[in-house]
Design brief:
single chain, alpha/beta, Rossmann fold, 2 domains, five-stranded parallel sheet, 12 helices
Length: 311
Amino acid sequence: MQLSVKHLLGIRDLTHQDIQLILDTATEFKEVLQRPIKKVPSLRDVTIVNLFYENSTRTRISFELAEKRLSADTINFTASGSSVSKGETLLDTVNNILSMKVDMVVMRHSASGAPHFLAKHIPAAIINAGDGINEHPTQGLLDAFSMRERLGKLEGLKVAIIGDIMHSRVAMSNIYLLKKMGAEIMVAGPPTLIPKYIQEAFDVRVEYNLRKALEWCDVANVLRIQLERQNQVLFSSLREYSLAYGINKQLLDSLNKEVVIMHPGPINRGVELDSDAADSKQSIILNQVENGVAVRMAALYLLSGGRGSMN
C-alpha cells in the first residue's frame, strides 16, 4: 500500500487509510527498534536534509535517529549558523541544498505554511516538523500511536487536550487526526487560551473546568504554555495558571478512574504538570518519545515510496 500524498504537510491532507497505514507501519518499525541491531537498509542511497529554522531538541533528534536507523544519508541544517543570518531567502537555501541532489526535506519553521510554500517550488518530498501555530503532523501521529498502544483503540476514545490551545500546532494535528479516527475530543483550559471559533469549526467540546475535563476523558494530552508565542498577557501568572489548571497526583488519585497522561514536551514541571503526575504509572510521556522514532521511520519510509526492505 502507498500513501495518497507525496508530502506530509499536515494531518488535514491525510485520509483515514493513510493514518492507518502510517500507524501500522510504525508498529513494524517499533519491533525493529527492539532488536540488538536496530538498523535496516530501507532508505540506503536516499539523502535527507533536516532543515530547522526554529529551535528543537526532541523532534530533531527523533528524525535524525529515524533516518540513521533506516540507513539514509542525512544533512543537518540550522538557520542560526547558516547564510540565512546573512539574508539568504528560504527558496535560495533550499535550491542550494537540492543542487546537492537531496531526495527529502524535513522542515521546521516559525512561519505557518512554510513547508506548503516549499512543496510548490521543489521536487523533493517534504515532511512538516512543525510550522508556526499551524500543524505538527508527526507529533499528532506519534500521540495517536501511543494512545492506541496503551488503550488498544482510537475509535470511541475520549481525549481531552488541555492547556494553551490557541498557540498549539500539536493541538491542531491531534484534533484533525483523532476526529478522522473516530475519537471524541474536548479542549480545556482558560477561556483566553481557547479560540472562540473552535467548538463550531472543529466540532469539539469546550471545558473551562479542569476537574470536569479529567472526569470526562480517558486520555489527557497536556500542552505546554507557550509564553514565547504570546504577544499579550493571557493569564495573571504561571502560579495562578498552575493552581487552576496544573495536574498533580493528588488530583488524579481523587478521580474515580485512571486517566492516561500525555505531554508533547518540553514539560514546564510545576506549571501544567507536577513531577509526581508526569512520572506516574498513568503517564506515557516517555513512551511518546520512544514511539516518535518508529512513527517518523514509518513516515520517511512511506514517503520514499516504500522501495527498500523493512527488515
